[in-house]
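Board work, copied verbatim: Fe2OG dioxygenase domain-containing protein
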Amino acid sequence: METTKIAALDRISELKAFDKRKAGVKGLVDAGITQLPRIFHDSPSNLANPKPPSSDLLHLTTIPTIDLEGRVFKDESKLKNTVDGIRDAAEKWGFFQVVNHGVSLDLLERMKDGVRRFNEQAPEVKKQFYSRDFRREFVYTSNFDLYTSSAASWRDTFSCYMAPNPPKPHDLPAFCRDVMLEYSKQALCLGEFLFELLSEALGLNPNHLKEIDCSKGLRMLCHYYPPCPEPDLTLGASKHSDSSFLTVLLPDQIEGLQVLREGYWFDVPPVPGALIINLITNDKFISSEHRVLANRATKARVSVACFFTTGIRSNPRIYGPIRELVSEDNPPKYREITVKEFALHRSAKGLDGTSDLLHFKI
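↓ predict structure ↓
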């Protein structure tokens, strides 16, 4: 027992020392470490990577890719086929990729470059943004759940609420200010379009999800995954499901994202120019668990996640299973809550490998 207490105290002191440096995992890489610090060592069960037997691959395959036709459908049949494809992907995977989504490839590349430039600038400049106070307009940190998770993950992140009240330009770092404002506007437009298609996929009026403010808030999280010296000992992001109505993820071409389905981890292969979509419902559409492997490449991996949520910001609206879809045969599985209540629960719980929804299950 005494040994366990000493080990716990040692871990806390190591976490505090890491946090106090305000340099994140990028700072460890810059320092030239060759061995992974103990605070990042994850358990073998969390690191396990079971793959389906070849006999199952035919029906499991990988997450679908949906062509959005530039957000302009030439006829009703194309729209119907797209809605049907989204419904099928959402029910079976909870994830799908979209191409021809209307966001220019140039903007996607500039957004990813902005993430790299912020993280690769001089440490003394970045430190002024480092914080664990997520009420700030712009926050740069490493592992929001650093002190509650069983193991730290190999990533740094900066985040900002971009809607409904976008930050003032001077609150954002010069390296990524303009592109964050531009990209968030495009992500909002795409999100509203996707909410229309998802509403139809649920058998609802196309404006239903927008009318209940699912597209009201947007929080942008920009992740930076430096090369890891011992990638078999840790993860870039541990198993979790997202806590937003919808997530639009911009990945780069370095693999790492995995989706859990039927007990197996499936790699999500990067598709040039594609965006990855993830969502949450009353279990009609799957809120899939996913994770990110530690980076094995020789250069940093980046991703930009746009979460459609008001998060911890004030929002009095109560959310629960959509009443039009609830019946005796499909009763509500979760109680009604505010977005802030859900977000605060996620913040306190961290990414511990269990679904945030379980806490609100009826």
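The chain has a mean pLDDT of 88.
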